[in-house]
DNA sequence: CTGAAAGCGCTTACAG
DNA sequence: CTGAAAGCGCTTACAG
């Protein structure tokens, strides 16, 4: 039993041409007479020939592989972004190598070494950061780096960020406009750049507005943490009536606790704003007012940058705007009762 | 600017040994004196050398890459499975190539061709099926195939299935035991092997028990379809009081519609059973009684089979049991009120 | 234990 | 337009 796929040599022999010719047949733009091309294509088809990307990658110094480096890849937001990225990559003729990390420097380094050993054309970081020295090694090898929502930059890389702080500020304004008297900030203890920025924006605006607020930060970024956050915030003697939660996943936990354990009416007795616009935020049971991450835009910009353009030595940076998605967890007091009905 | 990573040649020169020696240094079990190894390791470290898996894959006919072929990869169940698979693969020293399909034969074929061109050691199918002829080509090249929840088999491949029909049957029994008088079967129109089996088991058992039931099948497998299903089922003149929904995602949609649009109390006025045990099924707002897919077991069995063992010519098959997860969407009537309280 | 040499499957100047 | 030849970075018998 042959354990080898057909090679260019096999095709060449069958078609009665040189190995070079069959190579040209599969490299766009190479000169080849229509007749020869036809003969080669037919032979290739007959043999089930597929060019070996390992070999061609070795020669051309371009593998068509790009590494996706991320932690917690089954989380709603993360998996959505990964999906968008994978799809765009495929449309651009690239292929995605998924590498799971646990966010530790060690595992991120490990991931990047994997990427290097497969000579990926690029690496996209959704979690963690490559050490400066390793990043330089990558660049020297012609590998491109894109950093999504990371707080540092690396020379030669593309950095895509959201204006997280602005979202925190807008959340405060919104909550105050809804008549909330006592604000709450809920976040995980993950200390991820995006979360920290959202928190900072919130504190800044709340302080500037002279608003009273309390905050709770704990645990990993999860639904369960949301439940704990809800318990902590809602058992306070003077509990908040307007909460900004740095992540939808946690906000869902807060909503459930408020509703099912305390019977708190949302948005009448408690207004809540999340971040990410995960699918569940749009579910009827949550209808969460939140800020959406422009996932398709992030994915598009990332792969556009990867496939086009020359390598530069400065870092490029693009700042995207989260968009406010109004749903039904923030009380609307500006609209009178009758107008409210007319609007529906 | 050097655009090339350090190669074995560079390391060999720096360490004053042959290229063969540095190759041996990085292949487990190759004979090499401790002294030489030490010198090589040091040189490699200094140069930031990583063996080029493209070149080694070419020679050894083993790339360490395994393709994950799936549709709708950001769905809760799918992304969870993908995450487990990726993790196990990494632990086994392999790396995951993620390929997105849209389930059409065409895109599945495309995906497999991609896998072939990168000479992946294996392909794991979570969606779609490789055409018989293509599958044979793969096997001939020594590529291993694992099919998860697929209805056909392919010689030489591993097929992992769940006893979906049995779950459908158990759902009927459970609903009947809960005192439901009129059953409902809710499913998407996706015609996926797993769904069809779950439906079949339900119909079989319902018919055998002489139970009255209605069914609704429509749309893709999504939360939104669940909402439609809920509308269709709950607006019936004689609506069901016990529903088996072939997927948790859709079940969540049904719950929300029942609760928020019709004010139906769950489980008092409507019992509901799902399938998959996605994270949301465990959320406080749903607390969905459901069947769990043994995801970790599926992942473990898949990669164990891949890394160990000889290629055989018959297809192997393993049948896994979905496990009933009792939560709070099925009415409990066997337990008297006082006993009920004692149990808590 | 170690090295020289052949070979994996491709691409790409270089000539013609 | 086409082929012969060199070379990408590795591994692996084969000798010593």
Fold and architecture overview:
Chains A, B: GO terms for molecular function: DNA-binding transcription factor activity; transcription cis-regulatory region binding. Chains A, B: This is LacI family DNA-binding transcriptional regulator. Chains A, B: Keywords: DNA-binding, Repressor, Transcription, Transcription regulation. Chains A, B: It holds the Pfam family Peripla_BP_3. 2 copies of one chain form a homodimer. By secondary structure, chain A is of the alpha/beta class. Chain A folds into 3 domains: about 45 residues, 434 Repressor (Amino-terminal Domain) (Orthogonal Bundle), CATH 1.10.260.40; about 120 residues, Rossmann fold (3-Layer(aba) Sandwich), CATH 3.40.50.2300; about 140 residues, Rossmann fold. Chain A is built from 13 helices and 12 strands. In chain A, the strands form 2 sheets. Chain A has a 6-stranded parallel β-sheet with strand order 2-1-3-4-5-11, with helices on both faces. Chain A has a 6-stranded mixed β-sheet with strand order 7-6-8-9-10-12, sandwiched between helices. In chain A, helix 8 crosses helix 9 and helix 10 crosses helix 11. The first copy, chain A, is elongated and about 85 Å long. The N and C termini of chain A lie far apart (about 70 Å). The C terminus of chain A is likely disordered. At the A-B interface, helix 4, helix 5, strand 2, helix 6 and helix 11 of A face helix 4, helix 5, strand 2, helix 6 and helix 11 of B. Strand 2 of chain A pairs antiparallel with strand 2 of chain B, so a sheet runs across the interface. Chain A binds a DNA duplex (16 and 16 nucleotides) through helix 2 and helix 4.
């Amino acid at each position: 039993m042959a354990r080898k796929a057909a090679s260019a040599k096999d095709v060449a022999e069958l078609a009665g041409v040189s190995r070079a010719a069959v190579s040209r047949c599969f490299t766009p733009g190479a000169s080849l007479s229509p007749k020869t091309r036809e003969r080669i294509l037919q032979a290739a088809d007959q043999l089930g020939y597929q060019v070996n990307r390992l070999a061609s990658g070795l020669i051309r110094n371009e593998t068509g592989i790009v590494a996706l480096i991320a932690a917690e890849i089954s989380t709603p937001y993360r998996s959505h972004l990964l999906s968008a990225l994978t799809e765009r990559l495929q449309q651009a003729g690239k292929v995605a190598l998924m590498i799971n990390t646990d966010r530790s420097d060690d595992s991120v380094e490990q991931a990047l070494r994997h990427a290097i050993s497969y000579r990926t054309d690029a690496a996209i970081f959704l979690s963690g950061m490559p050490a400066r020295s390793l990043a330089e090694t990558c660049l020297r090898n012609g590998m491109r780096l894109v950093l999504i929502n990371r707080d540092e930059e690396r020379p030669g890389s593309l950095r895509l960020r959201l204006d997280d702080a602005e979202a925190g500020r807008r959340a405060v304004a919104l909550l105050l406009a809804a008549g909330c008297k006592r604000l709450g900030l809920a976040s995980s203890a993950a200390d991820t750049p995006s979360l920290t920025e959202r928190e900072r924006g919130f504190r800044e605006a709340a302080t500037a507005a002279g608003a009273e607020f309390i905050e709770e930060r704990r645990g990993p970024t999860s639904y369960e943490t949301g439940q704990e956050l809800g318990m902590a915030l809602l058992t306070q003697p003077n509990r908040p009536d307007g909460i900004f939660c740095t992540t939808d996943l946690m906000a869902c936990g807060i909503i459930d606790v408020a509703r099912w354990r305390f019977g708190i009416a949302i948005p009448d007795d408690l207004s809540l704003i999340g971040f990410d616009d995960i699918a569940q935020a749009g579910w009827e049971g949550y209808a969460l007012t939140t800020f959406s991450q422009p996932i398709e835009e992030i994915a598009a910009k990332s792969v556009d940058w990867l496939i086009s353009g020359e390598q530069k030595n400065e870092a490029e940076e693009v700042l995207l705007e989260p968009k406010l998605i109004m749903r039904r967890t923030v009380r609307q007091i500006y609209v009178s009762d009758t107008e409210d009905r007319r609007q529906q």
